[in-house]
Amino acid sequence: MEEKELVERLSAGDPAAFRELVEAYKKKMYFFALDMVGDPADAEDISQEVFLKAFRGFRTFKRDARLGSWLCRIAYNTSVDHLRRRPLIPETMEDAVLDSGSDGFRELPPSSDPARTAETRLLGVRVERALQNVSDRERTVFLLRHYNDLRLDEIAEAMQISVGSVKSYLFRCLRKLRKEFSRPGTPRRPLEVSDERL
Amino acid sequence: MKGCKKFRGLIIEALGEKLDPETSSFLEAHIRSCSRCAAEFIGLDEMLKTMDKRMRRDPGREFWDGYWDRLSRRLEMEKAAAEYAPGSPRKWLGRLAGGTRRWAYQAGAAVVLIAAGIIIGRAVFSPRPLPIEAIRPAGEAPEGQTAATDPILRARSYVDRSKLVLLALVNYVPPAVDPHALDLSLEKQVSRELVRQAGGLKSDLKGPARRRLRELVTDLETVLLQISNLEPPDDFEAVEFVKQGVESRGIFLKINLSEMGGDLSFSGREPAPEKAPSQKIKT
Question: ipTM of this predicted complex?
Fold first, then answer.
């Protein structure tokens, strides 16, 4: 369905259009919130809050904007509010990956090769660790850019910073990530002995 | 190498989205001529491809299937909450309708509670009916009994009459009164009559509970005997002697105590016996 048509129906107050919006963006919103806060229950709560805010405030949506970027902006603000209210340091995604069993990777295609499965899992651990080694703003910019396909100007609008700052954060983040991947990695946990295979 | 910094922004843009043809060819020309920027671009591109392999914990199909239901339930709850939020017209209507019912229930409950309280109060806390003797005015003889037969009534009459005689005598002031005008014949006559009644009355006032009344009658008898024996011309000195006797015996105080203590009011039965004096333990 064309996004423009969906926007028109949403503007007209079509309830079915709202459900279509939710079905189209629920995974993106959930995973973005999960990246931001690290807790699955909080992530669902935040993602639902995003849709509720969108439902209540759709009149503020600019017709020339993209629905995805608008929702990401709401998700970013909601996640930041949530993190401000939460006093404890959240469990990092790395911890979540390390602590999870095989069920934690349902997105992975079923493989009969245990070595490949283990390799993929370790790659996931390393990616999460790399993301934890960048600053919050750098990580947020990267998440919005790479996993949510927002343009630089859309990220700038969402985070209330300039496009130049977005580029700067993004470039620093990419360099740190590349540096993290290019070196063997200093083991921080017993599991990391096999990181060199990557 | 020179001017590579300005291509960083273009590299960042090129890694995430498609550049316009002119900008794209401009960046390609630089990368071909600059090994450092070329290495940077290739390195970042490879790193992003690695990041693309990132697999996040998926909550599962059941989670996604029920996502809309949970969201719609939350939406309904928010709607309901908004309808009854402060300032909402429906809230006021609901409060009016529901509130009236609630008010009626509360009023009904209050009435039931009050009625139950009255019934319980009447059944449990109401005073017991007093015996007929208790509500009878003091001094009034019960049925079948007359003033002539009841010792308390007789004692009361005796004390009242004695009191009058004593008051007449005590209030007498010799210097203010003409000695020739002093006439105590009536007081002496009444006193003699009362002295005669005293013996029978004391014998009727039996029991330890009437000891005080019996003693009062005895004291009155003594004073009244003095009054009945007054003889002229020594009346004035004798009157003073009687007055001192009344004061030293505390006759009026005893009369007042008997009246206040209920010794002279009819109870219909024997007053509670006084405690016997405690005996000393011999050691």
Answer: 0.73
